[in-house]
Amino acid sequence: MKRIGLFGGTFNPIHLGHLRAAQEVREGFSLEEIYLIPSALPPHKAPEGIAEAEARLEMIRLAVSDCTGFTVSNVELMRSGPSYTIDTVHHFKSLLPRDVERYFIVGVDAFLEINLWKSYKALFLSIPFIVMTRPGYHRERNRSVESLGDFLKSRISDRYQYSASQSCFVHVEKQPVYIFEADFLDISSTEIRKRIKEGRSIRSYVPEKVEDFIKKKGLFYDISD
Ligand code: ATP
Ligand code: MG
Asked: Residue 202 — very low, low, confident or very high, per pLDDT cuts 50/70/90?
């Protein structure tokens, strides 16, 4: 059975932390393809300091141009208004054949705010999640499983249970939530933007083609965050 992953984010800009984690998830879950989906106007972030959507999309294109198994999707940029994951999940449901297994990939920091997302309860009925741990966020596996479990039970449904045999949280009606250890590269877009502003190198933070694009376009030099 074909499996694919949907990986959404602001990608302002995409960096090696995203790419390494996504690569590991792709292998770990035997995903044929991961769709990288930049958001148009992130509903939970102030728009200031966010590069044009087309530029963020182009940087993702450049970042994965030499990799197999990654596709850039402009679906959120084609819709008007802010991007909501529920709409994107529905889009891929109608786009792909029914027997394609879909997973939504998200970092733990974003996942722990999912109760702020539009129609988040419907999301848990629609698609299984792969929640990636992030360097510096949780130090031990037990702690991350525990806090995620607490969150799921208190905010989503108290009928989520951890299944050790399946290594995920399961629910009688809702989709499973997998935890994936992705503590590889402690890199964030915030740190990259800060380094650019300070005139420091981002060489080991983003693919070379992305670095060249940022320089050529002069992105992130004059932002205030
Ligand atoms: P910002 O600092 O602007 O929030 P970011 O580095 O967190 O940027 P996002 O575009 O917000 O990047 O992240 C998209 C998704 O990728 C989120 O779900 C986030 O948790 C995850 N993610 C970001 N960086 C990493 C990383 N280094 N390792 C694992 N997951 C990551
Ligand atoms: Mg982030």
From this structure: very high
